[in-house]
Amino acid sequence: MSTEPQVEGTLSVTDSRTGQTYEFPITDGTVRATDLRQIKTSDDDFGLMTYDPAFMNTASCRSAITYLDGDAGVLRYRGYPIEQLAAKSTFLEVAWLLIHGELPTAKELEGFEKQIVDRMVVQAEVGESIKAFARNAHPMGILEAGFGHLSTLYPEAKQVESGPERMEAIINTIAKMPTIGAMAFRHNQGKDIVAPDPSLDYSTNILKMFFGADYEVDPRLVRALDILLILHADHEQNCSTSAVRAVGSSQVDTYSAVNAGIAALYGPLHGGANEAVLVMLREIGSADNVSDFMDKVKSREALLMGFGHRVYKNYDPRATIIKGACDDVFEVTGVNPLLEVAVALEATALADDFFIQRKLYPNVDFYSGLIYEALGIPTEMFTVMFAIGRAPGWVAQWLEMIQDKDQKISRPRQIYIGSGERDYVEVSAR
Ligand code: SDX
Fold first, then answer.
1. What percent of the chain has pLDDT over 90?
2. CA-CA distance, 33 to 59, in Å (whole number)?
3. What is the pLDDT at residue 375?
4. I need a labelling partner for 114 at 20 to 30 A (CA). Which of 90, 94, 121, 394 fits?
């Protein structure tokens, strides 16, 4: 696919209301929605629109960041297969790749890693504001507030047309997301905040900020965490990234745009699914109960959380890698007993027509929680882990949107189905 639209052919349509025929260029497998406005029944007709609730069949942008093939189960960041990046790269190297479009040189990577780790520290007032939350406040709600706080501490991020200010906000987002997530975690645990240590690497810092400065770090667990973050780093125009792009299109500061992504990710149909999977596995309790649970799913009383995907109609390649990473982690921590329930659920679903017909396969959320739990991370923190991983994708997509000359403030149209004009009625006459 070239960076400039290439005309592949034309679409001819005849409007039966007028008998008029129109021809539209087809580029990148699309017709431009605004071209359809030429189709009118009269001069004062607004012109034809498309109706696409939930954007099931609408390309919102032209992006060079992530490529998905849902039928083949392919995921590439800037052309590099996710399997290779998970095996050979690191989370911060992938963050650079997503933002800049190329793998960094050794010098670039070293400088970037130092810049990020040096910036992991977060202002004390953010920690103070987090203390105002109830002890049992959900950490995603705390993350929204804590991360949004950054927009008031870095007002210069409002200069979204400034290259240097954009990069400052991008660095801060990647650096501070885990620290604020850790602040939420420590608040929930009733423990003091642990400051990041610039002498340690990013993922080691996350575990230390979660579990304490004296936490014994096993390099195999650090690597597993880094791989999980790589796998969550971007996923083209998913719900939360689309939210970041839409909110960012108003030219609000970067932190506020990313905060919209945090809020969208919180939902159980999106990033909240990894938490819901563990709740589901615990409720099922044993592989013996899988069959009864599947009956509930097929009678629409429950969703099989961690299964299904808007794009993947095949196995989510990330789920395959995560399932493999489980073995490495369990070597250190011991096998999570819920793995047996998950494996039984998967085997049952993959052999059952209800799921086969609907092309429902495990997605990124199905196995990730088992690793987070084995690392000692509580269920309600799983979506915070997803947000930490997705931060580079959000800012890379935000940057691409801000720089895209084709983009402007996001403002869909509607089909009005409400009342026609009517006069106000005094309350005494109602
Ligand atoms: C993520 O978009 C992304 O890229 C997201 C993500 C990323 O990296 O950003 O990949 C991360 O959010 C992964 C998805 C996590 N969510 C879950 O695991 C929640 C459970 N999954 C479902 O809610 C659902 O599969 C969605 C939301 C993920 C996708 O929903 P769609 O594309 O709108 O599909 P649908 O709801 O129209 O379902 C089609 C059919 C329906 O049955 P019918 O009405 O046609 O008979 O499949 C059924 C659905 O009822 N179905 C499920 C199901 N998912 C879909 N039935 C049972 N269990 C499920 N999980």
1. 98
2. 10
3. 94
4. 394
Confidence of residue 2 (pLDDT cuts 50, 70, 90): low
Q: What is the tens place of the pLDDT at every residue in 97-117?
A: 999 999 999 999 999 999 999
* Beta carbons within 10 angstroms of residue 197's beta carbon: 15
Whether the per-residue pLDDT at 214 is higher than 90: the answer is yes
CA of 291 to the centre of ligand 1 (A): 20
Q: Please tell me which residue in 100, 270, 352, 353 is annotated as part of the active site.
A: 270
CATH 1.10.230.10 fits 273-374, yes or no: yes
Number of the ligand 1 atom closest to the C-alpha atom of 240? 9
pLDDT score recorded for residue 290? 97
Buried b (16+ CB within 10 A) or exposed e, 133-164: beeebbbbebbbbbbbbbbeebeebbebeeee
Ligand 1 pocket residue status of 269, Cβ below 6 Å: yes
Is the CB of residue 306 below 6 angstroms from any atom belonging to ligand 1?
Answer: yes
CB of 273 closer than 6 angstroms to any ligand 1 atom: yes
Q: Is the CB of 323 under 6 A from ligand 1?
A: no
- What's the farthest any 2 CA atoms get from each other in the chain? 77
Tokens for 103, please give them: 């793998």
User: Which of 255, 261, 263 is CA-nearest to residue 160?
Assistant: 255
| 187 among known catalytic residues | no
Task: Residue 378: count other Cβ atoms within 10 Å of its Cβ.
Answer: 16
Query: Is residue 394's pLDDT more than 80?
Result: yes
The domain 80-230+239-266: what is its CATH number? 1.10.580.10
Q: Is 423 a catalytic residue?
A: no
CA-closest residue to ligand 1 atom 11: 270
Yes or no: say if 326 and 234 are a contact pair by the CB < 8 Å rule: no
Mean pLDDT, all residues of the chain:
96
Average of per-residue pLDDT across 13-17: 98
In angstroms, rounded to a whole number, what is the distance separating the alpha carbons of residues 48 and 88?
A: 49
pTM reported for the whole predicted model:
0.96
Give nearest CA residue, ligand 1 atom 4.
238
Nearest CA to ligand 1 atom 43: 358
